[in-house]
Each structure stands twice: as structure tokens, then as C-alpha cells.
Amino acid sequence: MTTKARPDRAQQMLLRGFLKRESASAAGLLRFSIALGTVNALLMIASAYLLAQSIHLVMFEGADLSAVSHFLWTLGGLILVRGLLLALSQRLSARAARNIKSNIRANLLAKITQLGPNFTDQKGHGAMLNTLHDGVEALHDYYANYLPSVAYSALIPLAILVVIFPTDWQAGLIFLFTAPLIPFFMILVGHKAEKLNQERWQQLAVLGNYFFDRIRGLTQLKLFDATKRELKQIAKISDDFRHATLSVLKIAFLSSFALEFLATISVALVAVLIGFRLFFGTLDFATGFVVLLLAPEFYLPLRKLGNHYHARLEGISAAGEMLEILQTPGNESQVMAKPASSALDDTSNNGSITVSRLSFTYPNSNEGIHDITLALPATGMMAFVGASGAGKSTLFDCFLGFYPQVISCIDAGNGPFSAADIPKWQQEIAWIPQQPTLFYASIKENIMLGKPNATSAEVTIAAEKAGALAFIQSLPDGFDTLLGEQGEGLSGGQKQRIALARAFLKDAHILILDEPTAHLDSATERDVQRAINEHAKTHLVLVIAHRLSTLQQADSIFLLEAGRVVQQGNYQTLSQQTGPFKQLLNSDTQAGAHA
Ligand code: ADP
Fold first, then answer.
1. Hey, what domains does the chain have and what are their CATH numbers?
2. What would the pLDDT profile of 204-224 be if each residue is shown by its tens digit?
3. Mutate to test the pocket of ligand 1, among 394, 398, 513, 584 (most ligand atoms within 8 A of CB)
4. What is the pTM of this model?
5. Cα torsion angle, 449, 452, 456, 457, sign
């Protein structure tokens, strides 16, 4: 988790610009909602006049109730219409906020997908979840309440001033001079609150990452008897977060108390003045009463703005994280429409793939892969082997297009790839990592992820090929069995086979596997290996291999050491040559780790 300095003025402008841009999709709805709210306020002014007039007529002009009944009926009608307008306006602004939130979530997800899994790993999964969920949710109040209240705090007091000044200019002057005190005070307090809120969001991100990590590693923590220690640490971080939240709340309460106090004093001042003027007979009752009725309504939008000011702070703090994700330089062209002609078009391609002089080092380190050149045929099984840290995962991440900056080192027959080819290139690849991801859905839906429009027959064939059919059919609900998160309820081998079925169903040109037969009993391992061998006759299969049996089946073996390919050939040749491969075999045989 990187600690960020408090956003300076330029950053603030950037964030406000971002929030404004994002609201463009629902700007019409927001404007309509604000227009309804303003009409509602105008009707409120008319109601005040009607009420004051009716009371004046009955109390001071001796009119009976029937004489003012038309006023009262209109007043009743206005109250009803105002209620409807208020409800509609609130619904519309809430809907606008929902639309904007969905839009932002979609943009963030698209960007995160485009940046690839390494970005998520680097930022932390918990922090990412926080931004996508709590962060985007924090924008709801900003759009649904804060933005409309900014408009109301300008429009409604102005409308009241316009009608009060001709009626009673002295009261108008009091309104005019006391009103700016509220926003002034808000800005004064806002500065401090903003800093605290920013810190609070950073702590929330740390907390999110911490929780996420610890929950994932709960088994390890239990085994190492570290649960108590971790609980203490979690309590400490939660406590820090609680303190940060409380200091924000302290300021929020203090500021809303001060705002309420200012508004109350101002209304009281107006009331006292009106009282004196009525007493000395320099003001008639109807005017005095209208001013008294309108005085709280004049300060109400300003007080509401003060109450919703925290929504602005929350919104801006949350937007910081979002903007950081959206501005991370990635492969922008991936979101563009697919190019008309692509380096993947099959016209002149015999299916072979070359990787030339591929080098990639991780930022701030010299580790990675260096100068890797591979000539991969259209079909067959290629095994990649090497000690841990040799660079196998990095090579495959580059091959899968997770690092767009090196994608031009890959050529599938029609010239080097460009970044725009990555989405299409990824469609050509099915990938099964060591711990395949299964989703909270039925087995069938999990398999169909590879081909959403597949028929049931195709799903069954894929499952059979992957050696998964027998165990799926033995389950009470068969293919409709609902899996828990991460395939909860299945053994490691069963998850591997479902992932394999998914890959077979996708039927991509290239299948990449990491240790495919790990977790399998020897009978199933034979079946799955046979299925993969069969698949390799018509497809290119790239395997990160650790088992001797996998190496023996491979058409070609690439041995990696310190990020370089140091030996290449088939098992027969390599095992007879003196070199790193033979050393690896010997050390493994001695350790008895493989086969
Ligand atoms: P393998 O998959 O063969 O075990 P990796 O491709 O994971 O090896 O790692 C290759 C080298 O790159 C190692 O020296 C490792 O320490 C380094 N490395 C891997 N991931 C990162 C990362 N995210 N940041 C910095 N260095 C990394």
C-alpha cells in the first residue's frame, strides 16, 4: 500500500473534474431533479404568502373561514403537489447517482481487467475491493445529495431574497448579510476535515488488504498458532481506523453544531426585529408573518449543504483512489474497437508462433526474464522446466499479454503483435493456473465460462475429456451442483478437472497449463494426461512441468535458469547430454521429488 500525500490544489481540481466528468452520463436526470426541487421551493414561497394572508384576513380583517376557504384549498393543493415534487426529485437524484455509480464501476472494472492481474496483486485485493465497493458507494451521497444541495443553496435563498426585498427590505438585508457566514464557516472547517478524511480512506485500504490476506491465510495462521497474534494486530489496525473515523466525525458534529447555531441565531435576530416592529406598529402582520415563515426556509438549504458537506469530502477522497486506477498507464488501445485487420488473422499463418528476444524485468528490480527466443510449432506439447524463481511464470504472464509493453516480441505469423491485438490474442489461449479459479455458480456454469453458448452435449463431452464426467454425475445434482466460492466442496483434483473441462470447451488454439496433473490420483492422472496428449495433436499445449512423466511426454523441453532459456530439446536428447537438465534430473531423482 503506497501512502499518498494529501492532494494539493491541482490534484483537488483534477478530482473535482473527474467527478464532474463522470456525472455527464446522468446530467440530464440531475438537472431535472434540481429543477423539480426548485419549483418545490417556489411553491413553498407561495404557500407562505397564502398562509400569512389567510391568517391576516381571519385575525385582523374579521373575515370568516368560508371567505378564506379558497386560500385554504389552494394551500392544501400546494402542500400535496410539493410532497409529490419532493418525492419525485429525490427519486430522480437517487436514480442519477445509481446510474453514475454503475458507470464508474464498469469503467473501473474495464480498466482493472485491462491492467491485468499483476496490477491487482500490486495494489492489494482488499484495497481494490474497497475502492470498487465502498469507494463507489461513497459517491452516492455526493451525487444524490451534495450536488443538488449546492444548487439549492444558491437558487432557493436567491428566490426568497427576490420576493422578500420588495416586501420588507430590512429583513432582506439581515438575510443577505448572515447567509454568507454559513458557507464561509464550512470552507474553514472543510480544509481540516478533508485532510482527516483522506487519511481515513488510506487506513481503510490498509485494513481491507490486511483482512483479505488474513482471511485467505486462515488455515496457515491456525497451523502456526498465530491467530491470537493476528487478532491483536487486527484489533490495533481497527482501532486506528476507529480513531480516524472519530476525528472526522468530531469535526463533522462540531461543524454542523456551529452551522445550526449560526442559522438559529440569524432566524432569532429576524424574529426579534419583526417583533419590535410589530409592537411599534411599523410593520403589518401579514408581511411580518411571511418573513417569519420564510426565515427558516432561507437558511435551510445552506444548513443542508453543511450537512451534506461530508458527502463531498467522502466523494473526493474516494475519487482519489479511482482516478489513480483509471490514470494508470495501461494498454489504452485494448478498449478500442478491434482493428479491421489483425496480426492474428489466419490468412498467411501456418499456426506457428515465434517469441523473439523477449526481456522483461520487474519495476525497481533486475529480476525477470532476459532475451528469450522461442520457435513454437502450431501443434504439440512444449514443456517449460526450471527451479523456482527461474522465470517460468513471468514468461507465461508476458506470453498471455499481461505486460503489453513486451507484446511486440510475439509473432503469430503475420508480424509482431501490437497492443491492440491483445484481447483477440487472449481469446486464442486457454489457461489453467496451478490453483484454477472457480466461481460461486453451478459446475455447468463454471465449465461454460469457456464458451457461454455451448450446448449441454458439448459441456458433457468436454467434462468427459477432462476425466470429470464420472465424479460430476455421481453428485446428487450433477452438473447443476452449486459450487461454493473458489470451488468449495470439491477436492483439488476435481477443481483441476473442471478447469480442464472449461479449457477443452473453449477449444482455443493454445492451451497453457501449470502442473496439470498435480493433485490427481494415478488412475485419473493417466486419463487426464491422455486427454492432454490427444489435445496436443491438434493444438499447441504449453506446460509448466515439474513431473518426470510430463517431461517424458513433451515434444520439446525448454529449461529456464535465472530468467534465460539455457537448454532446449526433447527428453531423449536432453537427458543424455551433460548439462543443467541432466543435473536437474539427478538432483530430483536423489531427492525423490518427482515421478
Ligand atoms: P518461477 O515461476 O519460475 O518460479 P517467476 O517468474 O515467478 O519464477 O520469477 C522470476 C524472477 O522474478 C524471480 O527472481 C522472482 O523473484 C522475480 N519476481 C517475480 N514476481 C515479481 C514481482 N512481482 N516483482 C518483482 N520481482 C518478481
1. 23-326 (1.20.1560.10), 338-428+545-595 (3.40.50.300)
2. 777 877 877 777 777 777 777
3. 394
4. 0.65
5. negative
